Amino acid sequence: MDTIHTTNAVEFVDWRAKAKTKLEDENKAFKGSREARAVRDYILKTLICFADQEPRFAEVICNTKRTFSECCAAVVHNAGGMISDLDAYRRAVQFYFPNAEVEFVMNVKLTGAAPTEAEMQKPAEIKPAEAAPRPAAPTKPKKEPAAKPVPRPKKAKEDKPKQDDGIMQLSLWG
After folding, report:
1. How far is CA 27 from the centre of its chain?
2. Residue 134 and which of 56, 94, 143, 147 are 20 to 30 A apart at CA?
């Protein structure tokens, strides 16, 4: 009697590679605001790194219908013009995996010998910028009797350039 051997093949899915491909493809088709474009490259690299570290996270990225463009929009939503790296990455991870907790750990490794006494006493090469001195408050001149004003001939109106008051307004988003 012949016996038939059957095997149950288990298909291996490389969720990490699939997540990376999905995110990179969605990045090529990216649509978003100036703010979302500003964080996009950092968020992409970080999500790919997280997916590479955790296959369950990679699987969720692959199976969600939401897009990377929507993720970046969610990251900058109500950010008020600025967001810390940690908050941006937390929002990106929680966009895909709402129950995830994101912690930040920074390690400092002291390598080599401690600075010498001479190195520690050496003044800094770069100094903080000095604030511009505040102008002195104007003093009121003593009033003298006013002379009768001399009428001036009227000129045609000209567009005067605004006086440069030394103030410059900059925007983080361009």
Report:
1. 17
2. 143
pTM across the whole model: 0.59
Q: Is residue 27 part of a domain?
A: yes
> Within a domain: residue 91?
yes
CA distances from 64 to 30, 77, 139, 156 (A): 16, 20, 68, 67
Q: How many residues are present in the chain?
A: 174
Coil, helix or strand at residue 52: helix
> How deeply is 37 buried, as exposed, middle or buried, from its count of CB atoms within 10 A (0-12, 13-18, 19+)?
middle
87 part of a folded domain: yes
Q: Which tens digit of pLDDT belongs to each residue from 95-153?
A: 999 998 888 888 888 888 899 999 999 999 998 988 777 777 777 766 666 666 666 66
